[in-house]
Amino acid sequence: MNNLLRTPEQLPEKWKVEMKPNLSPVKQRNLWMNNRFYTSVNMKFWISHVISIGWLGISIYISLSWLTDLAEIVTYPLAILIISGIAYIPGYMNSFLVLSLLFDKQPSFKEEFPSDPVTLLIAAYNEEASIFDTLKYVAEQDFTGKIEVIVIDNNSQDNTTAEALRVGQELSLHITVLHESKPGKFHALNQGLTEVETPYVITLDADTLLHPSAVRYLVSRIKSSPDEVCAVAGSMLARNSRETIWTRVQEWDYFLGIASIKRLQGLYQGTLVAQGAFSLYKTEAVRGVAGWPDAIGEDIVLTWRLLSKGWKVFFEPLAVAFTDVPATLSHFTKQRSRWARGMIEGLQEIKPWNQPQIYIKYLTGINLIMPYLDFVYTTCWLPGLVLSCFGYYWIVGPMTLLVLPLTAISYGILYIYQRDYVFRNLDLRVRKNKRGFILFLIAYQMIMSPVSLWGYLQELFKSRRVWE
What we know:
The chain is an alpha/beta fold. The chain contains 15 helices and ten strands. It has a domain at 108-352: Spore Coat Polysaccharide Biosynthesis Protein SpsA, Chain A. Helix 12 (329-349) crosses helix 15.
């Protein structure tokens, strides 16, 4: 895996050459199932569970000696909690992910070129320097329907408003600029929602660039979905991956990690975050849950509210957008701890057992154990790794390597899917990023778990919210 998406973020004017509108039908691919045989979502769900539980049973059986040795040091209850957190549960979850990805087959589009009008909401705070590129790629969409653009200036201290109006005139975009003095993205989006008159509304971050077919594929997906689908999350990729070594690492997270989770959740009709950076919603569905909530993870809580009403949320991998990822560890820590806080906010407001659909109960229920997994990883696995360097394999040893094959398989499956189904259909190129991939495999989780744990603690103690 030496290649990754090639995006010329350094030279945006070249994107016309490398990013072309996709005006031909997409070839649907399935990695292993014969297309002549229909497998229901319910059957995929339970088959994946049965096999994953079988894997869990095998893991427990072959790790009994490890469990006994560790119990002599920390007692059996603690040994079970530690090994469950670093091996049993992650192994089961990876197994379920792999099997679900193998079963996944994105439904065909019923309407390849929809023309329904849509409204784009762009909440902007001091975006004078970036708003031109964002609007430029909105203007170059191959979508044949009318696109209304509402830019909500959220108390900017620069010339965001003047620049947005100038760009709209230059690019012949229908742009309305609103002003929201209350700080907070949710205030800005709710202000914009009051002006939306179209059946669909798309949220777009002011520093995010769209593939020329992105809007069309979002609308195509929701038009091709059952009536109970109220939102479709777009596919986010790193735009500034050549900025620092840290952005190179995150490129793989967006390309493999986040995309695999989105596909898993989309398969079971419950994408848990229709991210505010680029997602489409049915306007009346958002209004039906009183818009975006006062939360640090406003898109997470909004999505869970929609799911709690019996709606479904899909994911469209072909609706690609490129966003700036944090270029420093400090910025990354703030972002991901904020995401962790947002997950806790969602769990506090809507308990998994109160979700009406079994798949959503399960998917949101997994989030209940994430703090436990991150705690064990941070306080047990990382110290155990240090001990193993000195020959003490009490916590980290050969048995923990059993999780690695499943991780490699899941990433391999997703890499092939992204390359063959997404990139080739969108005329995207690939580029080398070997250093980022190695660091992603070796060190990424070592940073993610402590950062997430910090976010949980911030929410527990109701620390001051920090968006940037």
